[in-house]
Amino acid sequence: MIRNRRNIIFFSILLVIILSTFVWTLNMNSNTNSVDTGASLVEEPTYSNTVSISTNSIRFNTVDNLDQVAELIIVGTPTETFENRKHVITNYDDGAIQDFYTLTEIKIDKILKKPEEFSEEQETISIIEPVSLDGDTKLTSDGYVELQKGDQSIIFLMKNTFGDYSIINDNLGKFSLNHKENSVSRIQSESERQSIGDQSQQYEEFYSQIMEKYNLK
Hints:
Layout: H1 2-34, E1 50-53, H2 63-69, E2 72-78, E3 86-91, E4 97-113, E5 124-129, E6 131-134, E7 137-141, E8 153-159, E9 165-167, E10 174-176, H3 180-194, H4 200-213
Parallel strand pairs: 1-7
Antiparallel strand pairs: 2-4, 2-8, 3-4, 4-5, 6-7, 8-9, 8-10
Helix pairs in contact: 3-4
């Protein structure tokens, strides 16, 4: 009788421990899933006051040329919203804008091409985008549309004279892997807003070739 009672108590305690462990595991998984890893796309606000400045940047009209010129090609994901990135604007003595750009932190998901000195183990990189914020005004080079937080993209980069990696070929130098239609729509909207040539058709042509070339389908 006493032995049976002890067995009942033992199994009751064991059951409580098992249930407690199960509940704890569920809570841990729930907390892990709720952490913002930057993996999901974050929609950026539309800036009604946007100024597109024409530049003399070099354009590459084929994917092969783009591949040859790029020093670093990565698959990566921006970790901050556009507004929260470091925006740099320099001016001449008379106040006119001399240069502008944004430093965008990228989590490196895969390296497709790199110079010898670039470490395979590097996990993040700060790159230059030809766009910036001046108060409530967005400044952009030739209708460039910034990378969005959480939007994994293939990005073509080259070092500038200061040794910093910059996106090359404007909108045809970065391609969303998970949100292509959103990227095309944003490029079209910016082109219409600034009354400049629409790059969306060429973007789609490049996109198909790039997916095949780098086996990203």
